[in-house]
Design a protein that fits this description.
By secondary structure, the chain is mostly helical. The protein is about 70% helix and about 0% strand. The N terminus and C terminus are likely disordered.
Length: about 500
């Protein structure tokens, strides 16, 4: 069986799906640029290059954190939908419903932050939302949390629709995940990787979203009546379970683009295997129980949970990544890979994922965490795998799609210049964060000590280069998405 038979060219999207996909991706690209500009503002404030006051800094920090996580979720959800719809019957109303609820939630968050002055960071840790020292009202805190709730409900609607579609097609979620082949039997070579990864995300992230819904309702009750006391440790556990699951799901949804598209550019089949199925099955469990590594500094946390957080931190990042790295490298090896924008971005995504895991595992060690967790080491780690891992996965799909539209060349000098700027700026930006963390530069501080300013200024310059590359990407892709779609030649992937 040829690679073209295994990986047929995507059909032209029906009009409704075409409009929905464009809505998701154009919104996400614009929000990515906006959130990056907010991040640059924070770095320049710490560098003493902008006159932003501390109160505004923390509002920007709150908006940047909540907005970037939400935007990554929006874009990677569209990646999962784009491929999953080829194998199971999804309802367009669920996909659009998620978008509408996301936009309503985003408006609530923007209003709470920039009108209501809410500035307790994305974590809304109890009891800070209702103890603002007069900087914001309980109403502003409630609107912020309502925004999260709306976004979570939208995601859950999409996941439930996808789960129902997988069950209709394969009988149950276990068979969608491929558990029937873990211990034997002949694996169906056509079983889609998109279904395996999508099933894992549905199981794990639905639990995280439900945990988030529980804690948001608890905190909304507390905002309505502050005399209703909550258990702070329970609230923090639920918040970090929710937050960890949402952001981790983005990379598991995004990697579907690499699985589906890389074989188009190598010309080689990318088959499914028992180790692949085992890695996704194990990661389904690990990603659900690894969240205590965010709580290693909480002395009141049950000791067994902290031990579990450390051990699973070492193990959780490897199964899916290793099997993906092995699969990608063997697929590329002696393939005559066409180095076009989608394939280059796919390889960049694999590098960003790998490099981003390393500082995370280091920080997941209790003895290191006690020293490093409240330093810029942590934003260095998550910016690495988001900017150089997840976002390139999304861009891989977008450049592939745009390459099939008329009058939209996506492999020229401008695109390669954008990639150079993005990679150079992105790696430099993240490495400055990591080195500053190594030097114990604190995170979440609006004002920095004089000896910290060189790191802030270097990070600001790197961010400018990164954003310039992202602006080139966004402009080229948005123009391409708005052009009329055409059928591409399956034998010659666009680009």
């Amino acid at each position: 069986m040829s690679s073209l038979e295994l990986y047929p060219q995507d059909e032209k999207l029906p009009r409704g799906e075409h409009v929905a996909f464009n809505l998701y991706m154009i919104t996400a690209l614009l929000l990515f640029v906006l959130m990056m500009l907010l991040g640059l503002t924070m770095r320049m404030t710490q560098a003493e290059w902008t006159p932003v006051q501390a109160a505004m800094f923390y509002k920007i920090m709150t908006m940047h954190g909540a907005g970037m996580v939400g935007t990554m979720s929006l874009a990677s959800t569209a990646v999962m939908w784009f491929f999953l719809r080829k194998y199971v019957s999804l309802h367009l109303w669920a996909f659009l419903g998620n978008y509408v609820l996301f936009m309503l939630g985003a408006l609530c968050i923007i209003g709470a932050v920039f009108v209501g002055n809410f500035a307790s960071a994305w974590t809304f840790l109890y009891p800070l939302p209702v103890h603002s020292m007069g900087l914001w009202s309980n109403g502003a805190a409630a609107v912020f949390m309502l925004g999260y709730l709306l976004i979570g409900v939208g995601m859950l609607i999409f996941y439930l629709d996808a789960a129902a579609a997988i069950i209709r097609r394969y009988g149950n979620l276990a068979r969608g995940l491929g558990l029937q082949w873990l211990f034997g039997g002949t694996i169906d070579p056509t079983h889609p990787k998109a279904v395996v990864a999508g099933t894992m995300v549905i199981i794990a992230n639905s639990l995280g979203i439900l945990a988030g819904a529980v804690v948001l309702v608890m905190c909304l009750i507390n905002a309505w009546d502050p005399d209703v006391a909550l258990n702070a440790l329970v609230v923090k556990n639920l918040i970090y379970w929710f937050g960890h699951m949402v952001i981790n799901a983005t990379i598991y949804m995004g990697v579907i683009a690499v699985y589906e598209l890389l074989p188009r550019y190598t010309g080689k089949p990318y088959g499914i295997s028992r180790p692949f199925l085992w890695s996704w099955a194990v990661s389904t469990v690990f990603v659900i129980i690894v969240f205590p590594h965010h709580l290693l500094m909480d002395y009141a946390e049950p000791r067994w949970m902290l031990v579990m957080g450390q051990i699973i931190s070492y193990a959780a990042g490897f199964p899916v990544f290793l099997v993906t790295a092995y699969g990608v490298l063997t697929n590329i090896y002696r393939s005559g890979l066409r180095w076009q924008m989608p394939s280059m971005l796919a390889v960049l995504a694999l590098f960003g994922w790998a490099a981003g895991i390393v500082p995370a595992i280091i920080d997941g060690t209790i003895s290191v965490n006690r020293v490093m967790h409240n330093t810029q080491w942590v934003p260095g780690h998550f910016h690495f795998y988001l900017l150089l891992g997840v976002l390139p996965m999304v861009l891989t799909l977008l450049y592939h799609v745009v390459g099939g539209r008329r009058r939209a060349p996506v492999n020229g000098g401008v695109d390669r210049a954008g990639l150079f700027l993005y990679v150079t700026g992105g790696i430099s930006f993240c490495m400055v964060f990591l080195y500053a963390g190594h030097m114990s530069v604190a995170r979440r501080f609006a004002a920095h000590l004089p000896e910290w300013l060189p790191y802030d200024r270097a990070g600001s310059v790197a961010a400018m280069v990164l954003i310039l590359g992202m602006l080139l990407f966004a402009t080229r892709i948005i123009v391409g998405l708005l052009k009329a779609p055409v059928d591409a030649d399956p034998a010659h992937p666009a680009g």
